[in-house]
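Q: I have 485 residues here and want to know how they pack in 3D. Can you give me a structure?
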Amino acid sequence: MTSSAWTVLPVGVLLGSGYAIPLVYRRYPHWLGTMVLGAGSAALGMAGYLAYLVATAGPVQYFLGGWGPPWGIEVLVDRWSALGLLTVTGVGLPVLLYALYSARDELETPLVGKYFGLVLILMAAMMGTVMAADVFNLFVFVEVLSLAACAIVAIKGDRIATEASLRYLILGSIGSGTILLGIALLYMVTGHLNMAFAGTQMAAALLEHPQVVYAGLGFLVLGLSIKAALFPLHVWLPDAHASAPTASSALLSGLVVKAYIFGLWRIFAIMFGEGLLEAVPIRALLLAMATLGILAGSILAIGQTDLKLMLAYSTVANVGYVFLGLGLGSERAMLGAALHILNHGLMKASLFLAAGNLLHATETRHVRRLGGVGARMPWTMGAFTVAAMSMVGIPPLNGFVSKLYLALGALDAGSPFYVMVILVASLLTGLYYAPIIIAAYFEPEGPHRRAHEPVWACTLPPVLLALGCVLLGLYPAALMAILGG
């Protein structure tokens, strides 16, 4: 294990930029693009370097202030964290480019600088969440993330967005309370907040105080599952994601819910480990909730006529896929869950950004009123089609790769039932994406005959993300090198 201050630099860059941008924007609004894209690009470069270190030299750690655990604050980048950092920055950068132009249409001018400050703080909190090595600092980053996520929904200021963000805040606060209670219970029986040190005491704590350990883990799972929108704890998600600005929807569905899953993943892997998790009755519950989420999210998406609401319910289903991998616990299932975090981030961000272009050009959110738009907006609709096909799991796109590993992991775990769940859910996914694609390419033009591609900065990001779906489907080896698969 190596030590490097590079672990904290991307968080520092994004946080510093997030606080500086609203101040600079007041007097120098023309610097906005340079600052936003500069911060996003720097964070992506640092995340790539950390991923390289992990792939070549193993995990990277850093002790803030030189104080080592258990008293000091430890930052740890392992193979899963490296994937999380690449996901946040790799998906986040194209969304930032898109937002530089879309935010001016969707928000009042004085709010634009504040919006980008919130977005960069949001990205910094996600990166901190996936690297935190002690549960209290994990909690701190989760809270910063939750508040920033609520803010980028509410910033539109209309009634629907305000109600959605308030619902998000209330349910998120319930989740925060349960997370803090779970941390307190586990600290009480282990005497440590550092995950690794707590893990050394967890076996003894489980023997002496099993009910306390069960309750502590249960509260942590409940709180993080609320924030990650695991069915049936998802009720805040559809309206929040559908009513937010387009770039916010892409970040919330593509990235934010995954950061909470990474937090739970680190607790499972570092504090408990495979052996102790088998002794705690948690995997069966996760499998049941994941299965319900996959199927219910897909069925609910089929019934939607609002394009953004349909995409939001699709996220509920795809959160279920990641929790399915956690519940199965086999090596290939965990690898499939990790791959699906990145793959779904690319797919869903591309879909939301393409949907934003479609809604702006056609002035409709109805999924049945996009007839003929494929000829008018070939780049946008092409990106939407590629991402939708990947969501279904059609080879050789990246969605097929992660679903394949989840299915193989289910067989490794001796649970072929979940292979059927994945197949049925993929069929249901096709049922709600196919009508949109068929209408766009094969039906007569709708009433909006003047639809056309937006400026390049709004057209390019969904295309780049869709291209990422193709490349990671054809060449997943780079990710496998990081994940050790």
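Q: Anything worth noting?
A: The longest strand covers residues 60-63. The radius of gyration is 21 Å.
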